[in-house]
Structures are given as C-alpha cells and as structure tokens.
Amino acid sequence: MSAVDGGAGPDDRPLVSIIIVLFNSAEHISRCVSSIASLNYRPIELVFVDNGSRDASPLLARKCAAEAGLKCLVSETGRNSGFARANNLGFSLSHGQVLLMLNPDTELWPDALEKLVAALDDRTVGIAGCKVLYPDRVTIQHAGGYIRDNGLTMHYGVGEADDGQYDTPWECAYVTGAALAIRRNVLVRAGMLDPGYYPAYFEETDLCLRIRRLGYRVVYIPGARVVHDESTTVGKFTKRYYYLYHRNRIRFMLKNYSWRFLLERALPMEERWLTMIEPWEQAVPLNHGYFINILNLPLTLAARWKMERELKAPRLEDTVSEL
Question: What are phi and psi of 179, to 5 degrees?
C-alpha cells in the first residue's frame, strides 16, 4: 500500500484536509489562504472552524477562499470552545487521509504540504511537523521540540538565524500544533485532541506523546517551511499566557507521568527552575496554575485513567533532565 495507507497509485495522491481554527483572526486570514492556494500539492480540502470570533473572521474566510478558487467549509461554534475541541470538530467534518492542523496566522511555502505528505508515506511516522520561522523569514521559531522533566516545552533552534543548521529531518518528542500533519488512521487509534487543555497549550504535546507511545515516530521535516506570527490571540509572555501555559503544563505531567517520575524527577527540577525565574513576572499566574490543578485533580485523574485504559501502551518518560 502507498499514498499514506490509502492504496492509491503514484498519480493519485491522498486527499489532505487543512483544518484552521479561527478566533478573531481577520487580519491574518488573507495571507494564510493565499499561501494555501499557492501550494503545489493537490487534492486538498479546506475546513474552517470559527471559535466565536467577535470580528468578521468567518465571512472573511469564505470570501478569501472563494477569491483564491478554493472550496471551503466554515463551521461556527458560536463560542470559544478551545483549540482542541474546535480542531476535533474540524477533523470530524473532514474527509482527508491526511489532516493538517494549521494556525490562521501562518503562511506555507508552496512545497511544504508535499514534503509533509511524503514524510507520512512512511508507515512508521505518525506525525510530521514543519520548520517554523518568525515573520522575518530568517529567524527560527521551531525546529522540533523536547520536554524537560518538569514539563517545560522547548524548541530547537529558537531565535537562531536559519543558516541550514537544522536542515536534517529528525525524530523528536513533539512538534508545534501551528502546522502539524497526521495520518487520519493514526489519529483515530491514538484518540482526538484532549479538550481538557482549554483553551490552548499542550494539546499537541499530549497528542505527540500518545502517538509515540503507540510506536509511531514524530518527525521534524525541515523542507516543510512555514511562517508563524506566534501567539496572536493570547499574547506571548502576558500574565494570561503564563497562567494558561503553566496550568496546562502541570496537567500534562499529572496526566502522563508516573508518580515515581513526578516525585523523583519532575518535582526536583521544578524546585530548581523556580530559583531561576523572575518572581514578579510569573509568580502569580504560576501559583494560580498550581491551585487550579489541585481543584481539578479528580478530573485530571479521570482523564489519566481513561487514556491508560484506551491506549494500553507502555509509558514514555524520555524527558531532558538539564535546565
């Protein structure tokens, strides 16, 4: 079988469903859709899920797609249902053998999708991620990621000028959900994105870990390039960002790691890390995150039990122990 488990011939490529979640995204939609229209890969379908935008995002999405000659489906939730739940809705409305999660504040290189689909044609690969660049198109934002013992997610290459030093595909712990491709059959086996990471952060990290536990590889594909205007909805390094990030970081650890790991590796690293941060910057949102996780512990333990029952796969705790 070829063509991403679809059994298609060499000239009959698998359908790719591009899922874009909108939330007050009007200023970005035109550039994103234009880049999709310029892709040299076909066939594609475009599915927008609007998460209760207060601007004209749904209308603009339809207009830009029509002007670009792209058929699209726009589903409106009427409220902010969170990144995970909205993507899950998009998945359920789509038909492709390959699913591309794509943020609206991104622009794809014309050959990006072709590179991702080619990577997924390897049955050992479950998820393929992109080389993500800042809007200057020369500074790296993400070249694959790794996770520290206390759940901090780190990007290889972040802030470095792109001089080809990350031009080798490699296997990594996770790739960013700003532009992430997955085979539908793998997603079905692993389960959908977890809406418990509301409204955003760590849902793709959680999914990548589940995929890896099932024996598939998560790979970084440097030839698949994308520009990303990072954190345009929440705002990078605001108090709200820190609260959401740390709340979901702690939930991620409680859901996925053994109690022994949490006590012997995660907690000591958390204590070391706390001595390194600026208290005035993160103390209040971090303590809020700790408190909410205590309140929500029964729900997190229920999600942990449900995942273990469904996955029936060995636990992975291959995090990095250095700060």
Answer: -160, 95
